Amino acid sequence: MRIRDLIIMGRQYLVLACIIIVAIAVLFFLGYYVIYRKILHGRIKIGIGKIIWLGVLLIYLFVVAGATLFSRGGYYGNGMVSQLFSSYREAYILQKSVLWRNLILNYLMFVPLGILLPIGIKQFSKPWHVYVCGFVLSFLIETTQLVLHRGIFEPDDLFANTVGCMIGYGIYNIFRHVVCKDKKEKARKIFALQLPLIAACSVFTVLFVCYAGQELGNNPNQAYENIQSSAFEVDGKSNFENEDRQLTVYRVKRLSVEEAITKGRDFFASIGTKINDSRTDIYDESVLLYDSSGMCCIWIDYMGGSLRYTNFDMMFSEDGTDKASVKASETDVRAALSKVHVNLPPEAVFLEEGNGRYLFRVDVNEQMDVLNDGFLECKYSAETGIAEFDNHILLLERYKTYPAISTQEAFNKLRQGDFCTYLPEGFAKISVEGVRIGYSIDTKGFYQPDYCFDCIINGENSTIRIPALR
Fold it and tell me: Fewer CB under 10 Å: which end of the chain, C or N?
């Protein structure tokens, strides 16, 4: 989720919260000022400051509820309890800005609570009262998500929310000491209340510095949460080579946003159309571009420059039905791809998938000077040509060789649940058929080797990847 999406979502719930607060304010005015004060001649007064504080608190709580409960839909994993610090391991391994952003937002979301509580309620002048309240509110949110299947119960969120509340209380004390000139609190105590903020900043700084110091990036197939042994069993082939080996790592080019847009502009020009700059959408890992007609779009990944092209006009007939094609030859499909300026390596293996869809696969060949790896999938019709393609064939450059674990060690990791492949809900029976070497792009643009175990999981063909490097 992008910052823009978060702002839009927050604005939606903020507007709705304001409408509800206005309605509550009208009812409060009628009940308190008209009925209680005027008609019943009540003497208890409520100051305007307290009313404003209560309104702000209610708006804040509504926005939090909207972000954590109302905006959630059903997805894989709802109703589950994650392992402690698994979200931190996931963010560190995958190095996706959206994951880091979500972690930081979990801290920031409860900072206002730590500020608002001591401002409006005297009983929350003591820090541990505020901390307990933050923990309880976060626990209620996580429990509600678990019970109503609106998300996962994440101990990491509970931890981050509570620390965020502690940070908010520390900020409140700085404000009271510096701005309000309240000298009751000693400087030592004020500093102690800032320790949660200092600790949080220190942890994130250490994580970023450690990652920056790595030569290679993180293999995305590293497990960030072990699968419980009670959730699966492994059978089939179990004896593999137990000798250490050396495996090659390759380098993949990473495009900047500007380079990706330029690549898209050049692609549209090569097929006789122009880019529509007003419809350019920039994401964390890719960019989405449209042509001037709006009928063609391309996704370009920054890592490796993979390109996905769709021509909506060629995809469907006038009645909206899919334009299928009779079986075509490899020569026909290659020729059609060349018309959209996609030239495949000669060694690419051709496969017919049915319904006008074709696949070209290339595996790393150590003996060649120019190395390619990956696949291209396309939809072809003799009537219209290439309607869409997804080109993930990468150009590779040899980097270095590194020590790798043995095949048997990799299999032992699989058997212990040390992998990140999603398994079917319930119990999974994994039958291992064989193993081969595959590759994955790491977080710094290197092509790292994996042991790819070809399996049958509950009757379905699947592959479980175990990172090969030590």
Answer: C
